[in-house]
Amino acid sequence: MSRSAATKLAKLAQEAKGCTRCPLYQIATQTVFGEGPVGARLMLVGEQPGDQEDLAGKPFVGPAGKMLDRALAEAGVDRGEVYVTNVVKHFKNEPRGKRRLHKKPNRYEVEVCKVWFDQELALVRPHLVVAMGVTAASALAGKAVTLSKLRGQVVAFPNAAGQRGIVTIHPSSILRAPDEAGRRAAYVGLVKDLKLALTQIAGLARAA
Fold this sequence. Notes:
Elements: H1 3-16, E1 42-46, H2 51-56, H3 63-75, E2 82-86, E3 93-96, E4 99-102, H4 107-124, E5 128-132, H5 134-141, H6 147-150, E6 155-157, E7 163-168, H7 171-175, H8 180-207
Parallel strand pairs: 1-2, 1-5, 5-7
Antiparallel strand pairs: 3-4, 6-7
């Protein structure tokens, strides 16, 4: 990938810092832009930054990020070679005492913010995108989706320039599972989906 694409991505990240396209910037600490190399074969897309990501200014560094790192390692994926981002770049939250609780972004917030993701996708040009969670999958599909119906297959995302990808759970859902058995099953499923992504990327490379 050309150096100019990396320069454009860096400029885009800088531009996104001043984003006021929706009201979420008023309650978030900062914009949390995507992170990873231009030309990455794999792009992981989540919903939005969480509390720790909002404070650090980096995607997937909190509890869900640690869970993702663990799953990536078990699947044989080097996170340093992956581009990680969210469809919404500000942390939507509701103060509850000293805590800030996650609130799901609405359709308007997702669509308005997706302008940043669309440009990331065009510059990074991954071989495959993994949409993690319903919000990300629906944003890329351009319609409401059911994860269980799409998992295990490669799809084209109409609302992401037809980009090929797969859908999986968001790593935060593993943390919310009611018991250890549920957490283990969800984690195993995530690892399986990441391995599928690697298999698909290898197949695309052979076909090129």
